[in-house]
Amino acid sequence: MEAIENFIGTVNGLVWGPPMLVMILGVGLFLSLGLKLMPILKLGAGFRLMWKGRSASGAESDGEIPPFQALMTALSATVGTGNIAGVATAVFLGGPGALFWMWLTALVGMATKYSEAVLAVRFREVDERGAHVGGPMYYIRNGLGKKWAWLGVVFAIFAAIAGFGIGNTVQANSVADVLQANFNMPTWLTGVILMVLVGMVLIGGIRRIGHVASALVPLMAISYVLVGLVALAINADQIPAAFGLVFTHAFSPVAAEGGFAGAAVWAAIRFGVARGIFSNEAGLGSAPIAHAAAQTKNPVTQGMVAMLGTFIDTIIVCSITGLVIITSGAWISGETGAALTSLAFESGLPGFGNYVVAIALAIFAFTTILGWSFYGERCVEFLFGVKAIVPYRVLWILAIPVGATINLGFIWLVADTLNAMMALPNLIALLLLSPVVFKLTREHFEKEKALGVRG
Fold first, then answer.
1. Residue 179: which of 366, 13, 333 has the closest Cα?
2. 244-254 per-residue burial string, b: 16 or more CB within 10 A, e: under 16
3. Bridge partners of 65?
4. Contact at 8 Å (CB) between 116 and 134?
5. Angle (deg, nearest 10), helices 265-280 and 97-122
6. How far is CA 43 from the centre of its chain?
7. Dihedrals φ, ψ of 133, to 5°?
8. Are 267 and 250 in contact (CB under 8 A)?
C-alpha cells in the first residue's frame, strides 16, 4: 500500500507541477482575453438569464432539464467538500495567500466554464434513448474530427474513473468523518445511509437529479453563506487584517506560527490553484456534461448561465470559508481539512458553529455524489453505449460505503491526481476549439445589438 501511495504521490507531483498550473491559468486567461473579459463584464446578464431559465420556454424545448436545473446539477457536483475541507486544506498548506490564487483561478475560470458549456451545447448529440448527451468527449469528436477522437476517449476514461474519487469516495469519506466527530455516528452507518439515499435518487436519472439539485443547492448554499456572514460580523474587526494576510502572502512566504508550519509562495500558488480547480472544476470538463442536457437552442446563453457556477462556488462560497478561517485565527491552530473549518465556525459561533459545518458538508457532499454519478454515466455511455449505465450506477452506489470507511489522505491524493489527468484532454480541446467559441459569442452579441437598435 505504501509503495502505491508513493507512486501516486510522484505522479501527483508531476501532473500538478508548474506546467499544469500554467496551462490551467493560461487557458483561462487566453479565453478571457479572446472573449474581451465578457464573462466578468456580463455577470449581471448571466444572473438574469439564470433566473429566467427556471423553466424552459416551448420554443427552446431541446434538452431534458431547464437551464436553471442544468446549472444547479453542475453546482451540486462542484459545491462539495472542496468548499469546506478543500479551502481549509489550501490555507493550512499554503497559508492565507492560497485564497488569492483560488480567486484568480475562479476569475479566469469563468471564461473556461463559459467556453466548456458553449461547446457542450453546440456539439451535443441525441442518444438512442432520445436524451441529449454532450461534454468534452463529444465536442472533441464532433468539433475536432475523427483524428482527435482518441482524445475524447482518453477524457471519458479518466472522468469515469475520477468520478469515483472526486465525486464519490472523497465526499462519502468527508461526511463520515465529520458526522463521527460531531454526532459520534459510526462511519459504516453513514456509508449505508448515503448509499440508500443516493440509490433512491439515481433511479430517476437526470430529471430526478435536476429536481433534487434545484431544491437543495440554493437552500444549502444560501444558508451556509448567511451563517458564514454572521461569523464574519462577529470578527468584523479582523476582516481588514485578513485581507492584508491574503494579499501579502500571495506574493511573499509566510513564517511558521502557532500550529502553522510556514509556507513558501509556491505552496500558496500550488494549493490555491489545485484546490480552486478541485472546488469549482473550471477546466476539468465535468460541468459541460450537465449543461449539455439543458433545454436551450442557444449555446451562448447556456454558457453565460454556466459561468455563474465558478463565481458562486469560489468567489462566494469558498471566500466565506477562507475568510472565517483567517479572521478566527484558527488557521494557525494546526488543524486541517473540515476540522479546521469546524473550529473556525465554532470559535465565531460557540455551541452550534461546528454543527452548521457538519450539516452543510453532509448536504454538499450528498449532492456532489449525485451530480458526479451523472457525469460518470455519460462517460461510460460514450465509451460502451447505454447498456453500461445500469452496471455503472450499481458500482457507483456500492463504492459509497467503501469510501466512507477508508483512509482519507490516500483518497484525496488519488482524486487530486485524476483531476489533472481529466483536465489535460479538455484544456487541449478548449484551445483548439476556441475560434468556435469566439465566433458564436461575437455573432450572438452582434445579433443582440442589432435587435436592440431595431427595437
1. 366
2. ebbeebbeeeb
3. 294
4. no
5. 40
6. 19
7. -125, 140
8. no
pLDDT over 70 for what percent of the chain?
Answer: 98
| Mean per-residue pLDDT over the chain, rounded | 90
Contacts of 30 (CB under 8 A, 6+ apart): 431, 434
Tally helices (H) and strands (E) across the chain: 23, 2
What's phi and psi for 420, nearest 5 deg? -65, -40
- pLDDT of 60 reads 47
**Number of residues that make up the chain:** 455
**CB distance 305 to 50 below 8 Å:** yes
DSSP category for residue 298 = -
Is the pLDDT confidence value at 56 over 90?
no
Fill in the amino acid letter for 389: I
Which of the 8 DSSP states describes residue 124?
-
Our CA dihedral for 196, 157, 137, 378, rounded to 10 degrees, sits at -20
Reduced to 3 states (helix: H, G, I; strand: E, B; else coil), residue 133 is strand
> What number of CA atoms fall less than 13 Å from residue 167's CA on the CB side?
34
Residue 322's contacts (CB-CB under 8 Å, 6 or more residues apart) are 87, 90, 91, 96, 99, 102, 246
Q: What are the cell numbers at 369?
A: 455524489
Phi, psi (degrees; rounded to nearest 5) at 117: -70, -40
Q: Transcribe 335-356 into DSSP letters.
A: --HHHHHHHHHHHHSTTTHHHH
Count CB neighbours of 261 within 10 A.
Answer: 15
Task: Say which DSSP state 285 is in.
Answer: S
Taking the C-alpha atoms of residue 171 and residue 166, their distance in angstroms, rounded to an integer, is: 7
For 123-240, list the strands marked E by DSSP: 125-126, 132-133
